[in-house]
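Researcher: Here's a chain I'd like modeled. Treat it as a single chain, no partners, no ligands.
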Amino acid sequence: MATSRDRLGAVEAGESSGHQGYSGVEAVLSSDPATPAPLCPHGPTLLFVKVNQGKEEPRRFYACSACRDRKDCNFFQWEDEKVYQLFGYIYLFLMYLKFIELPLSQRKFCQSCQQLLLPDDEEKHREHQVVGDVSITQLKRPSKLLYPLENKKTNAQYLFADRSCLFLVDLLSNLGFRRVLCVGTPRLHELIRLKESGDKKSNIRSLLLDIDFRYSQFYMEDSFCHYNMFNHHFFDGKAALEVCKTFLQEDRGEGVIMVTDPPFGGLVEPLAVTFKKLIAMWKEGHSQDNSQKELPIFWIFPYFFESRICQFFPSFCMLDYQVDYDNHALYKHGKTGRKQSPVRIFTNIPPNRIILPIEEGYRFCPLCQRYVSLENQHCEHCNSCTSKDGRKWNHCFLCKKCVKPSWIHCSICNHCALPDHSCKGPKDGCFICGALDHKRSTCPNISTSKKVNKAVRKQKQRESNKMKMDTTKGQSMNHTSVTRKKKRRERTHQYLCS
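Model: Modeled as a single isolated chain. Structure tokens:
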């Protein structure tokens, strides 16, 4: 029997090996709420389905919501399996107040274990890599003290460069926000708290929701919640949920904004569902008169997810501001063309209210009434600044829109694409029949497809069994033949020697 790790690996291997038709894993968000999802160490799991165009019937399975790499969380359970598991949660709680009362010479941090050490703990970490003289300044910037978790499929803890972080803090302050819900943005949370403590005129506060439990060493429960943004799970239960709810609903929900920077390898659908739950939590503190208002949001994500994000949040627009990161090899400010950072800010705040820094190469377009990058030229045919990746885009009169400069119009596909693109088959629509007016789940041919796929599976199984039998038989015959030849050589050798 395959282990859970092996089965998840088989599903993922099928996704990467398919060359013909569409193959992929989709999140199933319409599962029966009466059937609770099984738990993994990261909270409730998500339901997924493996989809193959024109191939065998898909089977649904549960997997970790936060970890896309099975090396980090190998939980796997088929939907129709009944597995009863009990997980315990281990949290690291150190007495932060006791630590800061220690003399500087006794304040130590274990880099091997990524935790603050009290004097009684030093003996256990004697052979570890320990840093001494931890200052109050370092404690206020824990993201620079901790090692970043750089697995892009799990935590993807790429941290804002100070340039982008300071821009966001100033922008939020200038827009008049008094509270910032930082979902997966620890460095922004740090700078807001520094601004609050250093500037007496500043009245901006923040609450950090993050899956990295190490931050619980540095923040009290009213400023940090251990949280999984992929399934809206508060690890500390109802108490943490109430902290978040109170923060959002303070002053009847006025003056608060949510800023989120999810892992780039995360699925948009589960994130959108989670953010809508946070929006619903915020709306609970509103009166009926304000039911049409929206929670202001900054969703920081690569520009090529624009259509997916706008599918769930139609009021969002994408800003031209390039967000860069300290510990990412490519996403750095100052690069041009396709080498620049692809990370942008998606928001429901009107773009004419957001001023981008002119000294960094942004200009105000009077026709679009918003700030854009210098390379983003206004198209008189589209009546907008259309570039998204830092290059000047070209207008295609056949497609009636601007496209990337490297694309050409294909007469077969009847749209613009790369010169060496493939024109085979539909890329959208139903994976079973190829029609564009419906999806696989509502295909009228799904029952026929199931019968055909079942027959195909049986035929493949028969062929596989036959190949195994032929291989075993061939190996047995080859072994017999080799043995006979060996004995014949031995007899000949003995005769010659005699």
